[in-house]
Amino acid sequence: MMTGTSDPAGVAGEVAVVTGGSQGIGLTVATAMAGGGARVAVLDLHEPAAGAPDAMFVRCDVADEPSVDAAFSAVEEALGPVSILVNNAGVFPIASIEDTTRSEWDRTLAINLTGAFLCSQRVLPGMRAAGYGRIVSIGSSAGKTGGAKHVAAYAASKAGVMALAKSIASEYAAHGITSNALAPALINTDMVAGIADLADQIPVGRLGEPEDVARAVLFLAARESSFITAEVMDVNGGFLID
Question: Which CATH number is 194's domain given?
């Protein structure tokens, strides 16, 4: 039986870390988490712009293991054990397969995929000890389809992120930890500037907004979502129906 709650977002009092939280989707997610009563830490290479939520900022390179460990140690010391992790940090290079350099390929996988792995690996022991945790990783519809032309590195990295989320789910479900991913498409951010002309290809008739993604993150991060794990949730207005 469902009962009323004074915590409609389901995250009040939790310690939430959002990687890549200084702009775009990450900043919107961090704002939503803080608005829901979570104690939020933003991990990024750059400080959030003016108007950012009331959140702790920690400079972090998610592709560097010592940087990740130091950042999470700082969060734990200031806010307490991390109970929610949002793996959002990412880059979006555009280059044909033939023009993608090895260094650009390695950099994309290091930030997008290895970063999600390192951050998840860092928080999982504490979540396991607590018997509770929520991990939400931001994938992409490109990880399902291969994406549009010239995004092979990005698509491959996001496919890996979504598979990683499922692997975490199967390994840690018995410890009260859920792990899910989102597969957004055509979200109106600086990363995909210039796509407004694609809105007529989306069944709901508009581009997605960062708030659409943030609401989905909040849903999966909530305590009440304990029976949802190993899922990849589409956030695309019907653009990809699979």
Answer: 3.40.50.720
pLDDT level of residue 3 (50, 70, 90 thresholds): very low
Q: Is position 154 annotated as part of the catalytic site?
A: yes
The pLDDT value recorded for residue 121 is 98
- Calculate the CA 67 to chain-centre distance: 18
User: Residue 53 domain-assigned?
Assistant: yes
Q: Give the other-Cβ count within 10 Å of 238's Cβ.
A: 12
Task: State the total domains in the chain.
Answer: 1
Range of the domain at 231: 15-235
- The residue behind tokens 């293991």 is 65
Q: What is the pLDDT of residue 1?
A: 35
Q: From the candidates 154, 164, 210, 237, which is the catalytic residue? A: 154
Domain assignment of residue 35, yes or no: yes
